[in-house]
């Protein structure tokens, strides 16, 4: 399997703080990689360095073998890199379908179409497919703000997959989602991975969710990679247990 994403020796300092301290890993095509670690260990900073929200102090990011370090988020979007944020990014007054269309326009770098008219740039069909895929049919015309929190997280994840991205980085997709919706969310993420061969990286604090969703898990502590491996290997790694119990 070829690597979609290769991260080599990424570092990010904030003044005297070394938030990410020499992290290297790769993500293979069709893989779901989990990224876990105690609060403040550098997960979000690492995501932001990969996604162009932050410029790394050092290191290299490659997408499909091409160096993309330092590219802006919009440029990465056009290359097929998509993300969700810890906090929901849905537009509450727009319908579920409109939110998906807008996300598709963003992925195409086509936000200007918002200003020049309500043309959907051919994205209604793609949005309808995503609605079906994420089982949001009964909510398609509802304003997103009227959905439950768990449904909005499902929509938020669906938005990241509009436009058939090459790589999706999901930041705490399960955060605050109740157990019954969690099962739906996991089920849909597994399905999109299998049926569309989608590749993604998931930051998540919900250990059970991440261990059952991901094929490999990377554990960070204090800006470094502490462990990387299959969920069952990582779960019993003494250094990982210590990192969690120590906090
Ligand atoms: N913009 C910033 N300026 C200064 N320090 C920052 C900045 N962003 C993050 N940090 C620091 O870098 C370290 C890593 O933070 P980061 O948010 O990446 O951790 P995290 O693992 O994502 O945490 P959480 O699980 O709580 O989201 C922390 O010490 C944090 O205080």
UniProtKB/TrEMBL annotation:
A molecular-function term among this protein's GO annotations: ATP binding
CDD domains assigned: ABC_Mj1267_LivG_branched
Residue ranges constituting the ABC transporter domain according to the UniProt record: 5-247
Gene3D superfamilies linked: P-loop containing nucleotide triphosphate hydrolases
Assigned keywords, A-Z: ATP-binding, Nucleotide-binding, Transport
Any Pfam family matching the protein: ABC_tran
InterPro entries: AAA+_ATPase, ABC_AA/LPS_Transport, ABC_transporter-like_ATP-bd, BCA_ABC_TP_C, P-loop_NTPase
Purpose: Involved in beta-(1-->2)glucan export. Transmembrane domains (TMD) form a pore in the inner membrane and the ATP-binding domain (NBD) is responsible for energy generation.
Entry-linked PANTHER family: CONSERVED COMPONENT OF ABC TRANSPORTER FOR NATURAL AMINO ACIDS, CONSERVED COMPONENT OF ABC TRANSPORTER FOR NATURAL AMINO ACIDS-RELATED
Protein name: ABC transporter ATP-binding protein
Organism lineage: Bacteria, Pseudomonadati, Pseudomonadota, Alphaproteobacteria, Hyphomicrobiales
